[in-house]
């Protein structure tokens, strides 16, 4: 597939147009969803699409800085106080995937091992790596996990924006600061330097986690030099949405129709199950319902953190839930799979 500059510019133009149109319609997470749909429209109609390889990592660097900037000292304290609830939420999300794996396996006709890694909401990259280690079908897991992220991205932002109660996020809200471009550029360079070793270690989402950790440290100690302006966050959304949209080619969606339908149905069931668990955990813990629904949502960490930011639903709390789940997936999914096999559950 050609990756010339004109092709990349055409793809980004379609992505930006889609984002702008959805912004005019006041759709939550408009720039990412619109960019995804705009790029997917080209891909579905068999036009070549391409996004510069640096676009998504660059967007994630600034997104990580923006998310980390919301962790002032008091906010970080409040998030750490909620850590037991985050651990419970992570375990519930993984266990829910185990339940839904049975449904996915029947619908998709895969072996049970592959079905398990397709259903657990642990992120596309994380689950693909774990599937490879377990000798499951990596291609099938990648497709199913990608479809799940797409389902969540297209449904959770508008539904939460229109239906969910907002709640009190005072404890998880930091005071805003002004943008100072020299400080922002220095943070971006330092964030990139933090991301590179994480990438060498094979960690999922290094481009976001490295800068995010840097910004959390600066914000929590009162040394944050600059905010990240909204246009840069919007540009990050476009880069992420366009990257997702390039995957939605006609061949991708139609060549594995049964698998796509299974992923769609199981993702919907998993979303409903985790939404119900989110409401229950919120009721028990006293934390805001909308943040718990988004914290347990089976979407990717960058996408769900962006949704929280766009809807002002306690970014640090939601990000904390997804960071905790990512860690637990790396620690528990492998042993859980082996234990389920021994017990005859898979």
TrEMBL record:
<keyword id="KW-0472">Membrane</keyword>
<feature type="transmembrane region" description="Helical">
    <location>
        <begin position="180"/>
        <end position="198"/>
    </location>
</feature>
<dbReference type="InterPro" id="IPR007820">
    <property type="entry name" value="AbrB_fam"/>
</dbReference>
<feature type="transmembrane region" description="Helical">
    <location>
        <begin position="138"/>
        <end position="160"/>
    </location>
</feature>
<keyword id="KW-1133">Transmembrane helix</keyword>
<dbReference type="InterPro" id="IPR017516">
    <property type="entry name" value="AbrB_dup"/>
</dbReference>
<feature type="transmembrane region" description="Helical">
    <location>
        <begin position="78"/>
        <end position="102"/>
    </location>
</feature>
<dbReference type="Pfam" id="PF05145">
    <property type="entry name" value="AbrB"/>
</dbReference>
<protein>
    <submittedName>
        <fullName>AbrB family transcriptional regulator</fullName>
    </submittedName>
</protein>
<feature type="transmembrane region" description="Helical">
    <location>
        <begin position="114"/>
        <end position="131"/>
    </location>
</feature>
<feature type="transmembrane region" description="Helical">
    <location>
        <begin position="12"/>
        <end position="34"/>
    </location>
</feature>
<feature type="transmembrane region" description="Helical">
    <location>
        <begin position="54"/>
        <end position="71"/>
    </location>
</feature>
<feature type="transmembrane region" description="Helical">
    <location>
        <begin position="260"/>
        <end position="293"/>
    </location>
</feature>
<keyword id="KW-0812">Transmembrane</keyword>
């Amino acid at each position: 597939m050609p990756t010339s500059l004109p092709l990349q510019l055409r793809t980004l133009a379609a992505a930006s147009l889609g984002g702008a149109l959805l912004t005019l319609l006041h759709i939550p997470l408009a720039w990412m969803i619109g960019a995804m749909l705009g790029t997917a429209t080209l891909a579905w109609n068999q036009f070549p699409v391409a996004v510069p390889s640096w676009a998504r990592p660059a967007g994630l660097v600034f997104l990580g800085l923006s998310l980390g900037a919301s962790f002032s000292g008091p906010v970080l304290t409040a998030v750490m106080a909620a850590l037991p609830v985050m651990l419970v939420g992570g375990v519930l999300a993984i266990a829910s995937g185990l339940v839904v794996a049975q449904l996915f396996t029947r619908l998709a006709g895969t072996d049970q091992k592959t079905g398990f890694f397709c259903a657990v909401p642990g992120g596309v990259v994380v689950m693909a790596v774990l599937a490879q280690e377990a000798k499951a079908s990596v291609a099938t897991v990648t497709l199913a996990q990608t479809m799940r992220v797409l389902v969540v991205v297209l449904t959770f932002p508008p539904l939460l924006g229109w239906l969910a109660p907002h709640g009190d996020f005072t404890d998880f809200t930091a005071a805003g600061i002004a943008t100072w471009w020299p400080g922002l550029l220095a943070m971006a360079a330092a964030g990139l330097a933090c991301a590179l070793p994480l990438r060498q270690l094979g960690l999922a989402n290094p481009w976001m986690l490295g800068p995010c950790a840097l910004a959390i440290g600066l914000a929590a100690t009162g040394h944050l030099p600059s905010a990240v302006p909204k246009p840069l966050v919007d540009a990050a959304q476009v880069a992420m949405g366009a990257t997702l949209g390039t995957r939605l080619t006609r061949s991708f969606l139609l060549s594995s129709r049964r698998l796509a339908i299974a992923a769609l149905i199981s993702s919907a069931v998993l979303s409903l199950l985790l939404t119900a668990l989110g409401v229950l955990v919120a009721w028990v813990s006293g934390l805001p319902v909308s943040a718990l629904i988004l914290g347990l949502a089976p979407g990717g960490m960058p996408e769900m953190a962006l949704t929280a930011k766009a809807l002002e639903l306690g970014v640090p709390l939601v990000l904390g839930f997804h960071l905790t789940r990512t860690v637990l997936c790396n620690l528990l999914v492998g042993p859980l799979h082996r234990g389920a096999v021994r017990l005859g559950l898979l």
